[in-house]
């Protein structure tokens, strides 16, 4: 027969599965319970803010949040400035979730070349939230437009007339052509190679 403790645990588990927001009402000790907090975060990413510190770097919990929400990172201030942890986490994130990472990190990390490269390789459109310096970095922009040609619209202006970058973008998505510099689109040789 079930112990009293087990009964309570399964009741609380059922509650947080239905509504992750219940996590904020849990006593401190319950917030260290991995199964409970995983269920809470699956139900509502905002439950991340109630995690015990020991679980704030738990990969499975962070993945569960990231797979259910685009704003999960805003609930983890510490992670917003931890480039190494974010790069590790990115490896297992779906691209639609990676897309929002740069939106919620510190300005310093929006200018972190390694992190930005890792993000745009997963989701080119995330280039939008990179620092101005990195949006003018040919390698970063090439990585972004290879993944999604439309990212060309966020590239630094002088890169819009960079033949190789624009060709890469157009190969990835022909619609990218409309962001190319006029000097290129008016160039017959270039247009012959682009189409």
Instruction: Return the string of H and E elements.
Output: HHHHHHHHHHHH
| Alpha carbon gap, first and last residue | 72 Å
Task: Report the total helices.
Answer: 12
Tell me the Rg in angstroms: 22 Å
Strand tally, please? Answer: 0
Contiguous low-pLDDT stretches (5 residues minimum) are none
Q: Characterize the main sheet.
A: none
Spatial shape: elongated
What class, by secondary structure content? mainly alpha
Q: Bin the helical content.
A: 40-55%
What is the overall pLDDT average? Answer: 92
% residues in beta strands: under 5%
Topology diagram in text:
Blueprint: H1 4-18, H2 34-43, H3 59-68, H4 83-90, H5 95-98, H6 107-110, H7 113-122, H8 132-135, H9 138-147, H10 163-172, H11 182-185, H12 188-194
Helix pairs in contact: 1-2, 2-3, 4-7, 7-9, 9-10
